[in-house]
Specification:
- By secondary structure, the chain is α/β, with parallel strands linked by helices.
- The protein has one domain: Maf protein (Alpha-Beta Complex).
- 32% of the residues lie in helices and 23% in strands.
- It has 7 helices and 7 strands, in the order H-E-H-E-H-E-E-H-E-E-H-E-H-H.
- Strands 1, 2, 3, 4, 5, 6 and 7 form a 7-stranded mixed beta sheet that branches.
- Helix 2 links the parallel strand 1 and strand 2.
- Helix 4 crosses helix 5.
- The chain is globular, with a radius of gyration of 17 Å.
- The mean pLDDT is 92.
């Protein structure tokens, strides 16, 4: 469980969180976000194989993936509330997940360079008292400034792009080249906080 902010315990009780939530994710960034706002949680990576997204379908597959992740963990931890999320980057009708290697990471960054793309995150929250999950989908528009080949190559060699949808981290080195965002910053990191609060309170 992440280090908690003791003063935040009463705050989270307002949303009905009285014991740790299971975060069904191996993302250190999602864990860091929950830790920063004092939400009590435990990390249990989901046993779901992520396949290629394919063409854009309006976010339905993204939502199903979040549900599958949450349900796979809820099956083992039925007494706990479970939170899962899935994030992709969309440029026109192309969908980018995590790059498989340095070459793919560089290719994705060349595509995003100088363009406005969208970051989509689906979240699923299954409360402790129910096996039925509620879902929400968040979208943020991001403008990436034009990148030179040398900048792309140097960035890829840092290793930062390799475990991130869209091959960049706005909260890390990749933030050097983000010109603007329209929407939730935390959605780009992988867990839109305001919608998360509403999602948890709704159940």
């Amino acid at each position: 469980m992440g280090d908690l902010i003791p003063q935040a315990a009463e705050l989270w009780q307002l949303a009905g969180v009285t014991k740790p939530i299971i975060l069904a994710s191996s993302s250190p960034r999602r864990a860091a976000i929950l830790r920063a706002v004092g939400c009590p949680f435990k990390v249990v990576p989901p046993s779901v194989q992520e396949s290629e997204y394919g063409s854009w379908d309006g976010g339905e597959l993204l939502r199903r993936r979040a549900v599958q992740k949450a349900e796979s963990v809820k099956a083992e931890f039925s007494a706990y509330s479970v939170l899962a999320a899935d994030t992709i980057v969309k440029l026109d009708d192309r969908v980018f997940g995590k790059p498989q290697d340095h070459q793919e990471a560089a290719s994705i960054l060349r595509s995003l360079s100088g363009r406005v793309h969208e970051v989509w995150t689906a979240m699923c929250f299954i409360p402790a008292t129910s096996g039925i999950g509620n879902t929400v989908v968040s979208r943020t528009a991001v403008t990436l400034r034009p990148l030179s080949s040398s900048e792309i190559n140097a960035y890829v060699m840092t290793g930062e792009p390799l475990d991130k949808a869209g091959a960049y981290g706005i909260q890390g080195i990749g933030g050097l080249w983000i010109q603007s965002i329209e929407g939730c910053y935390f959605n780009v990191v992988g867990l839109p906080l305001s919608q998360l609060w509403d999602l948890i309170k709704s159940v």
